[in-house]
Amino acid sequence: MTSNAFSGALPDLYEASIAELQDGLVQGLFSSVQLVKAYLSRIEEVNLKGPALHAVIETNPKALTQAAALDDERKEKGSRGPLHGIPILLKDNIATLYEEGMNTTAGSYALLGSVVPRDAFVTTKLREAGAIFIGKTNLSEWAGARSISLPRGFSGRGGQTRCPYYPNADPFASSSGSGVAMAVGLAAGSLGTETRASIVAPSSRNNIVGIKPTVGLVSRSGVVPYSSNQDTPGPMCRSVTDAALLLTFIAGPDPRDEATLRQPGIVPDYMKALNKNALKGTRLGVPRAFIRNMKAIEETFNSSLDIFRALGAEIVDPADFPNGEELLASQAEKLVMAVDFKFGISKYISELVEAPTGVKTLADLIEFNKINADLELPGPFYTDQSRFTDAEGTQVDDAYFAALAQNFDLGRTRGIDATLAKFNLDAIILPTDVLEPRPTAIAGYPLISVPLGFQPDGVEVLPATPSPLHSQAPGIPFGIAFMGTAYSEFKLISYAYAFEQATHVRLQRKAYNDAIPRTQLAGVM
Predict the structure, then answer these.
(1) Is 198 considered catalytic here?
(2) Is residue 193 part of a domain?
(3) Which listed residue (178, 198, 227, 330) is catalytic?
């Protein structure tokens, strides 16, 4: 087979959809082995070499063997479905079988070599569907639980993740590796996790689609915890279609995660939400008071309101939260997250088969970082673990339960739900980058980010404080967020899809040249 025999028909891996790849596998244009080889080569090109994006923390030593087995199974028994033989990346806080050869560390050397009891629930669901996990993605260490002042996308094990749209650009929040990997086509799809903005912010910054589900729609069992009240895994992909497909597979009840047992009824097929006309007759609210400080983003967002109107939506602007100031002033979320992490991480470690470093508690992690400061706390930008030390002094007490009740009241009852009711809205829209993440985070409500635009070419390059990264630079992407009440994912996906199909923003600009991998399927065939 010559390398260019199929080149006309082969999908471009920078942008190839899961459906396109599955179609090529079904037609026999290429195999899963070839697909895995191509993606591993792409990772090799840009992850540690060249632009050193540090998006992937490690690759799966068994990926090619698994791909070969799935190719054989396809020949003998047929396909398992749309994910059969499709390469996926998982954030490094989502457990994969230790025997497979990859670690689950949340980016920390403290969990290196730890033996998980089983796959995470979401991993099991995707594995059963025939997905191949080709690697783990880098993240803000401990999903951001270690420090508020650390550069985003840094972990001891994985180094500093970088956005591929401008050299040394800030990748923007905890699931940064998944966002960066999707931006330049290092896999067909990925999962991230969100506690507050950790799926939607890196999706916005890296020009992809991220779905943060309602807390309780997708199981957290086997995911290194931050906050049991706010954590959720979710898909990060290049299109609403791919994200909806992954969500359909990973959603559902799990006896190991009590929150999922409160789901209303049967999980819908989110692929049925993909309706270009879904915005017709809807009322969308703009919480204008939350939008500030980003001129280019606000101008692009304001222009997009005409697109929504053209698609048949009525825009209510402003539709400000009745409790907006009180919500932003509240300190309850900080206490809840600190307590949740302290007790959640001890529980997670206690359920491991083995933790070779001997850590058992948050106090142990703080001490581990001090002893291994050269690995975990390298200067000058990565020395802080103040969230850890603040959390160490907390307790599950009356103040914690009061803070939790205040969160639900502010985020749900008097926040998102009150705003939807007051203005008779179907959903709330605002730019993802200027989004105040608190309402959806403390409510545990869904959020979807879709590409909206790019910072203009003449924009001043500004450093992110206090890190070596740039927060503002020419061509850096930003997204638009769709917010709704609990379990409104189907509606939000339909609105996001209609907007995406009308705009196709993602394809208007690619990553900077050196950050784009050159390997394509033809090169490995």
Answers:
(1) yes
(2) yes
(3) 198
pTM: 0.97
* Burial readout 490-500 (b: 16 or more C-beta within 10 A, e: otherwise): bbbbbbbbbbb
Task: Please pick, among 174, 330, 449, 494, the residue that the annotation labels catalytic.
Answer: 174
Half-sphere exposure of residue 157: CA atoms within 13 angstroms, side-chain side: 25
What is the distance between the alpha carbons of residues 421 and 158, in angstroms, rounded to a whole number?
A: 44
What is the CATH classification number for the domain harbouring 324?
3.90.1300.10
Computed on alpha carbons and rounded to an integer, the radius of gyration of the chain in Å comes to: 22
Q: CA 177, CA 197: separation in Å to the nearest integer?
A: 14
| 400 domain residue, yes or no | yes
- Report if residue 1 sits inside a domain: no
447 touches 489 (CB < 8 A)? no
> If 0-12 CB within 10 Å is exposed, 13-18 middle and 19+ buried, where does residue 294 land?
middle
Residue 3 lies in a domain: no
C-alpha 24/C-alpha 136 separation (Å) is: 25
Asked if 200 and 435 touch (Cβ cutoff 8 Å), the reply is: yes
Q: Which of 91, 136, 212, 342 is catalytic?
A: 91
Residue 345 has what DSSP assignment?
H
3-state class (DSSP) for residue 20: helix
Distance between first and last Cα of the chain: 7
Residue 228 CB neighbour total at 10 angstroms:
18
Average pLDDT per 10 consecutive residues for the chain, totaling 525 residues:
49 98 98 98 98 98 98 98 99 98 98 98 98 98 96 97 97 97 98 97 98 98 98 98 98 98 94 98 96 88 98 98 94 97 98 98 98 97 97 98 98 98 98 86 98 96 88 96 98 98 98 98 97
How many CA atoms lie within 13 Å of 519's alpha carbon, on the beta-carbon side? Answer: 18
Which residues, 6 or more positions from 12, have their beta carbon under 8 angstroms from its beta carbon?
Answer: 185, 520
Handedness of CA 233, 236, 240, 241 (dihedral sign): negative
Q: What tokens were used for 476?
A: 């850096």
Q: At what angle do helices 332-350 and 362-371 cross, to 10 degrees?
A: 80
In the chain, how many domains are there?
1
Distances (CA, A) of 191 to 91, 123, 126, 414: 6, 10, 10, 31
Residue count of the chain: 525
- pLDDT at position 74 is 98
Q: What is the pLDDT of residue 4?
A: 34
| Cβ(118)–Cβ(111) below 8 Å | no
Q: What is the dihedral of CA 67, 71, 77, 82, to 10 degrees?
A: 70
Give the structural domain span for 162: 18-524
Neighbours of 514 (CB within 10 A): 11
CA gap 323, 87 in Å, rounded: 44
